[in-house]
Amino acid sequence: MSKCLSSVAAVSLLAALTMVQASAQTKQVESVARKTYGIGRIAEPREIAGWDIDVRPDGQGLPDGQGSVKAGEEVYLARCAACHGEFGESAGRWPQVAGGTGSLGSDDPIKTVGSYFPYLSSVFDYVRHAMPFGDAQSLSNDELYAVVAYLLFLNDVVDEKFVLSKQTFRQVKMPNVGGFHDDDRETAERAFWKPKPCMTDCKAEVKIIGHARIIDVTPEDKVSRRGVE
User: Is 203 part of any domain?
Assistant: First the structure.
């Protein structure tokens, strides 16, 4: 009987020690998790909401509001035209936001809202995060919807009566939606791959045929000049 009691006592003691050890480890983990190193604090929901403003192609993340092409013209002329031109043609060296249709395959591709962006969310998200330049995120939701609607109008994507909102967002199909493809180089370019590429002494002779100070790094003429053969 005494041996049985001793065995039970031993098992109970072992179980108690295990529980104490586990509790100590849990407290240690919690202590590390709570450690702040004396800087920062947990972000509040309203602060997180200020950064969580991205929009997906399906419209998820869109804010409440709406804006017409007509209202967008007023916003654009007041807040955007100084850099991007009255008709999106660009002012000075600032980016062009309209036109460029069919230019992406040329030697001088013009990437605009109409010629380049595959999804309306890309346009909306960029304007919402970064525009107007120097005063980003100063537009109200209605102004944001309106100016994006006007950009679509400048690129002949919508008509002058269009009103952009959560409800009409998914109706818009961007002209270059089919211009982006998954990266398929692993299969499309496999024939060009070499299992043992040359890494040293790959060319018998390297001859310098020009210097940057002579030919200029960005020559104004259209003659192709190579610096090394």
Answer: no
